[in-house]
Structure prediction request, 104 residues.
Amino acid sequence: EPQGLQMIVDELLHSIIPLYFVLFWIFSDDKGKAKWNHLPQWLLYPIVYVVYIMLRGSLSGFYPYPFINPIELGYQLVLINIVGLLIFFIILFAVFILIAKKSK
Prediction:
């Protein structure tokens, strides 16, 4: 459980920034430029981040999220969780694209 400044940063990262992103996207004039072929590009960050977390965790033994901790869950369940997370992002990005197409 984060405390002090780490708690503030954690709250910003997981609550405020996602809300800010959605609001920014809603009021942005550029959302009509979202296309289906952008989806792989958008998945690049989550994929690189998960690879980074897994590599760093294998060296340090620290995994910042309990659902991707192979020490506690095993690699099979962690892989299932990562695939589920990527599916979630694909669905989320698809919703953004559909909304952008309808708002033209």
Observations:
- The chain has a mean pLDDT of 88.
- The two ends are 44 Å apart (CA to CA).
- Helices lie at 5-27, 39-60, 70-73, 75-102.
- The chain has four helices and no strands.
